[in-house]
Structure formats: C-alpha cells, structure tokens
TrEMBL record, chain A:
The keyword Isomerase does not apply. One of its GO terms (cellular component) is plasma membrane. Pfam families: BPD_transp_2. It is found in: Cell membrane. The chain crosses the membrane at residues 6-27, 39-61, 81-110, 165-183, 225-246, 253-279, 299-317. It is a multi-pass membrane protein. This is Branched-chain amino acid ABC transporter permease. The keyword Transmembrane helix applies. GO terms for molecular function: branched-chain amino acid transmembrane transporter activity. The lineage of its organism: Archaea, Methanobacteriati, Candidatus Hadarchaeota, Candidatus Hadarchaeia, Candidatus Hadarchaeales. Keywords: Cell membrane, Membrane, Transmembrane, Transmembrane helix.
Automatic annotation (TrEMBL), chain B:
This is Branched-chain amino acid ABC transporter permease. Belongs to the binding-protein-dependent transport system permease family. LivHM subfamily. It holds the Pfam family BPD_transp_2. It is a multi-pass membrane protein. GO terms for molecular function: transmembrane transporter activity. It is found in: Cell membrane. Its main location: membrane. It comes from Hadarchaeum yellowstonense.
C-alpha cells in the first residue's frame, strides 16, 4: 500500500513539474526568454482554483457566510455535495481549468509587455519581480486566497471516495502527457524553427520578417497558460492554496534545474530531466532523516546548495544537458527535386 | 529624538543606494544582471551579528571584514565561474542563470550558518537586529549618521577614483569599449575583477550596517534585491551617479511612500510595500526605459519652452 502511495505521489509530482518544465522549455529553451518568474503563472492558476469554484458552488447551494473566514465548514458542505455529483464536479473542474488558461494568458501578456522590447536582462527581472509581487498580494489580500493562512479548495474528485488520491494523480499525469504532446507538436512544427531563429539571432530573424515582439508575447502567453494549468492542477491535487508556499526556489529554480539537466530545447530531454530529478529528490528525502541527527542545521539547505551546485556544474561541463538539442536537418536534394516535380 | 519612520527612510535609502552602486558597477562593466548580489549583503549582515554576539566586538570595527569577505565571494563568482564560462562562449542569458543558481548556493550557506549560530551559540539568528549594539551620536542611533556619510563618501571616492586615477580611467575606457581598451594595453580582465570585487564589497558593507536598524533574516538580501533592481533601472543602468539617485528615490518611495499611503488608505497598505519596486520597474520600462539619467532633460525642457 505504501509503495503504491509513493508511486502515485511521484506520478503527481512528476506531472506538475513536467508541465512547468515543458512550459519553461517553450519560452526559455526555444524562444530564449530568460523566464525567472515561472512561479508567477503557476500562482495565477492556483489562485483561480482558490477563488472561483468554491464561491460558485457556495452561491449555487445558497450558502450564507464569508468564504474565507468560514472556509472550513463551507468546504466541508461543498465537498459532501460534490461527492455525490460526478457531473457537476467534472464540469466545475473543466471550467476552472479553462479559466486558469485564460488567466495564465493574461498574466503572461501583462508580465512580458513592459520589458519585451528592452532586452533579456530587463525582461528576466520584470518577470522575477512580478512573480514575487503576485505572491505578496496573495499573502496579504485575504479574499483572494486566504492570506498567509491559505484556503481550502473544493475537492472536485470527492466522488472517487477512497480512490481519490489515485484518480487525482492519474488526472494530473494525463494532463502532463497531453501537454507534452501539445508542446512537442508546437515545437516540431515550423513554429519551433521560428522560435529557435528568434532565440539564436534576433536581428537575422527580424530581417526575415519575423515580428520578434509578437512572437515573444505569444510564446509567453502560451507557456504561462500551461504553467497556470499546472498551478490549478497542483492546487486541486493538494486540496489547498497557501500563497507562502509558492516560492521562487521550488517553482522557478527547480524547473530551471530540471530543464538544464535534461536538455535545453529538447522535449524528450526535459522529460528525462524531470524524471531523474524527481527520483533524485525522493532519494534525498528518504536519506534526510538519517542525516539529520549528525548535522547542526536543517538538511533542506544542503539540498538547496546541492541543486545550485548541480546547475553550475551542468552549465560548466555539459551545457547541452543529458540529451542535447537536435539539429533540424535540411531536406535532401532528392526530396527537394521530387517536391519540385509535383 | 528623531521619528523612527524618518530613520527608517534614511537608513534604508542610503544602504539601498550603496548596494545599487555595486550592482550597477557590475552591470556597466560586464553587462551581467547579477542575481546573486543580494545574498552578498546578507553575508555582511551575518558578519555584523557574529562580530557583535560571538566575538563581542564593535560592529564598526568589523566593517572592513564584511567588505573584504563579500568582495572575495563576488570575486570568486566572477573569476572562477563567470569568466571561464564566458570564455567558453556561453550566452549572456546563460550567465544570468549561473548567478541565479549561485544565489541559491549562497542562500543555502547563509541558512546553514544561521542554523549553526542558533544551535551552537544559542543566538536569535533567524530574525535579528542589533540596535542595542549601535553607538549613540547626539542621542540618535549612530547608523542614521554613518550610513548617509558612507553613501556620500563611497560616491566621492568612486568619483575621484574613476576620474583622477589612471586605473579609474582605464576602468571607464573598458566600460566604454572593451576591445579598444584592451588594444591600448588596459588589462581588461583585471578591471572586471576589480569591479566585481568592489561591487561585492559594497554589498557587504551595506549589509553589515543593515541589522543596526532593520530586522534581518537569511533572505533579507534577496528581498532587498528586488528594490536594487528597481533602483538601478530607475537611475538608468549606465551611470553610477544614477544608481545613487535611483537608490535614494526608490528607498524613500518604499519607506516614506508606503507610510504616507497608509495614512490615506489605512495601515493595511504597509504590507504591500514589496509591490513598490514592481511598480517602479513597470512604470520605468513603459515610459522611460533608459532611466532618470538616460532622459535628455535639457532637450525636453527647451522643447516645452518653444511650445510655450
């Protein structure tokens, strides 16, 4: 039983990180936007889950009271209602995901717009500052996500009863697989080549008629939408949204580490990176308890140092990652001639 | 006795200005947005804590230690990580990622050190300030007088260094055009190393004075970093003098601005103080991306006068 729980937990963790890292790969790996604010869109998705579905159900069921202060009792009533209504639960889940996609796009546009024309450094900083800013708002403005205490989200998988954990984990993983195919399709199309052209040489790309600002904005919108889905799914998975938990270290830096480990601008590499990293992390967590008595500090910090050193070593000795980016070969002369004939 | 909010503003703004000078120096010379810069200031704060509580020394006597230690960490980052990587032809974005990762290494070490101080020396090392260890000058805490003096003397010394000494001229030449400076015999790598060392040292110095008035924790530098970004962008990233102006404006806007707003909208506003850098960054990028020193004020004024 414990083994299954462990596997399911790993499945869900891999799923969430896979979505985040794929979206990071789309904007940073393919399009060359140094996105140090990945956590921003993730928070946006989580806040959508914290804000909308619970309130909608509360009004539908005619409940009185404040959603934030009476959160526990209201969520309890809502969950017992959802447990017997499979259709409403699923409809609500899908609607929330769609709203999260919308908000992700808005957040992506708003955060990229100020500095998109100025340069990659300013853009990186704007994204980073925006990510921190949204978290500050969430921590202090209680109606949004319960302030620093956090808020419970309605459990749209309550109908599964005892198998809830299994269902959520599988749903998260299925979403991540779908997003893998979506991103893979995007980046293996001519669009992917265009993104790489923008990344490698902006001036050359512009001279070929590519609207660089537009491409960057659109890429950020799509990638932020994906990250927002990841955030929403993670909120549904954990059943609660606590704004203080959305730190730069765990939701921006670790996806970066995963992407660099697996291979920049290579979706298969990203998948490898995420699996390797999550596995390593689970190992560290397992051995953490054995190390703790010997050290006069929390092992958590050692973990942080380990990830930082890992990223630096990757950058120094294997910048292409585990699986390097594939070159797009030009078509063979014979194929071109055939195409010319037809 | 001076009002605490006045002291808050003065100390924060001048220390922010010191940090912004260093950050902008790195940005001007090597074009790198150093995301690990804030944690160097935290290192300075922890040296002050160690000096006051473990070594039982005056904090002011250990300012040089903080300067040298943070400077060395910054120099190591440049000499052993940034330079070899840029020689291997990594892109600028790759170097941002490098400093971003290095920041987490530093944060890890700072947290470990804080835990070590807490567990071994039984100190309050996770949330601390050392107002009690400060000296009193004319009935006010010493830091209120010393931190503006420090900011002024740093900018004067830097100005003299950059304009009056041979090495300073070489430094300006390198900032202007590295290959050309190299071709007339300037040791470009030495110039870069010195600017990283100086910048790190300034962060350490500012950080060492921080706990004398402001509550410190292992992430403090990382949080102030957001204001440093905003200040540097506000001052225009191509000028050290702009950095001072930007640092003071951004710092005062943060402290006095939020307290003024809280008078209007109620005390709830104070919690949103971290949003001020965000607003500054967005407004500057949308209206005047070159910052205060990048705007041609004279042209603007004469144009308006012609219209009149």
């Amino acid at each position: 039983m414990a083994a299954i729980d462990f596997l399911l937990d790993m499945l869900a963790t891999v799923g969430v990180y896979l979505m985040l890292t794929l979206s990071l790969n789309l904007d940073s790996g393919y399009c060359g936007i140094p996105n140090f604010g990945k956590v921003l869109a993730m928070i946006a998705g989580a806040f959508v889950v914290a804000f909308f579905p619970g309130r909608i159900l509360a009004t539908m069921l005619g409940m009185s009271g404040d959603f934030v202060t009476d959160n526990a009792s209201m969520i309890f009533q809502i969950n017992s209602f959802l447990a017997s209504n499979f259709l409403i639960s699923t409809a609500l889940f899908i609607a929330t995901i769609i709203v999260a996609i919308g908000f992700g796009m808005i957040v992506g546009y708003v955060s990229t717009r100020p500095a998109v024309k100025i340069g990659s450094g300013p853009l990186a900083i704007t994204l980073l500052v925006m990510g921190e800013g949204l978290r500050v708002i969430g921590t202090n403005y209680a109606p949004l996500a319960g302030g620093s205490i956090g808020i419970s989200a309605p459990d749209v998988f309550a109908w599964a009863g005892g198998d809830r954990f299994l269902v959520v984990s599988v749903v998260v993983f299925v979403f991540s697989v779908a997003i893998f195919f979506f991103v893979n399709r995007l980046t293996n199309a001519p669009l992917g080549r265009m993104l790489r052209a923008v990344r490698d040489n902006e001036i050359a790309a512009e001279s070929l008629g590519i609207d660089i600002v537009g491409v960057k904005l659109k890429t950020m919108m799509v990638s932020s939408a994906i990250a927002a889905v990841a955030g929403a799914l993670y909120a549904f998975y954990s059943g609660a949204v606590i704004s203080t938990a959305y730190t730069r270290a765990s939701w921006t830096f670790i996806p970066w580490a995963m992407m660099l480990l697996g291979g920049v601008a290579n979706n298969v590499g990203v998948v490898t990176g995420v699996f390797t990293f999550v596995f390593l992390r689970k190992l560290i967590v397992m051995y953490k308890a054995e190390l703790t008595p010997y050290l006069p500090f929390d092992v958590l910090w050692l973990e942080l140092i380990l990830y930082g050193v890992m990223v630096i070593l990757i950058l120094m000795y294997r910048p292409e990652g585990l699986i390097p980016e594939k070159r797009t070969p030009t078509l063979k002369m014979s194929t071109l001639k055939k195409m010319q004939k037809t | 006795m001076v009002e605490p909010i006045v002291i808050d503003g003065i100390v924060y703004a001048t220390l922010l200005a010191c940090m912004t000078i260093g950050f902008t120096l790195i940005l001007m010379s090597t074009k790198i947005w150093n995301f690990a810069y804030g944690s160097l200031a935290t290192a300075g704060a922890y040296i002050s804590l160690t000096a006051a509580e473990v070594w039982k020394l005056s904090i002011y006597s250990q300012l040089l230690t903080a300067f040298v230690l943070s400077g060395i960490v910054s120099f190591v980052l440049y000499r052993f990580l940034v330079r070899p990587l840029s020689q291997r032809g990594i892109s600028l974005d790759g170097l941002f990622v490098l400093t971003f990762a290095f920041n987490f290494v530093l944060l890890g070490f700072l947290n470990i050190y804080a835990d070590y101080l807490t567990n071994v020396f039984k100190l309050r090392a996770r949330l601390f300030f050392l107002r009690g260890a400060d000296i009193q000058i004319f009935g006010t805490p010493g830091v209120v007088i010393i931190s503006p003096l420090l900011a002024v003397s740093i900018i004067v010394v830097l100005h003299l260094f950059l304009t009056r000494t041979k090495f300073g001229t070489a430094m300006r030449a390198t900032i202007e055009n590295p290959p050309l400076a190299g071709s007339v015999g300037v040791n470009v790598n030495l110039v870069y190393s010195v600017s990283w060392f100086l910048a790190g040292g300034l962060a350490g110095l500012a950080g060492a004075l921080l706990p004398l008035w402001i509550l410190c924790y292992p992430n403090i530098g990382d949080v102030i970093m957001l204001s440093v970004f905003a200040a540097s962008i506000l001052g225009g990233i191509h000028s050290i003098y702009g950095a001072v102006i930007g640092g003071i404006i951004a710092g005062l806007a943060e402290v006095w601005g939020t307290s003024a707003l809280s008078g209007v909208f109620g005390s709830g506003v104070i919690q949103y103080r971290p949003l001020i850098p965000l607003i500054i960054v967005v407004v500057i990028f949308l209206t005047a991306p070159e910052g205060i020193t990048g705007i041609e004020w004279r042209g603007k004024l004469t144009k308006r006068m012609r219209k009149v």
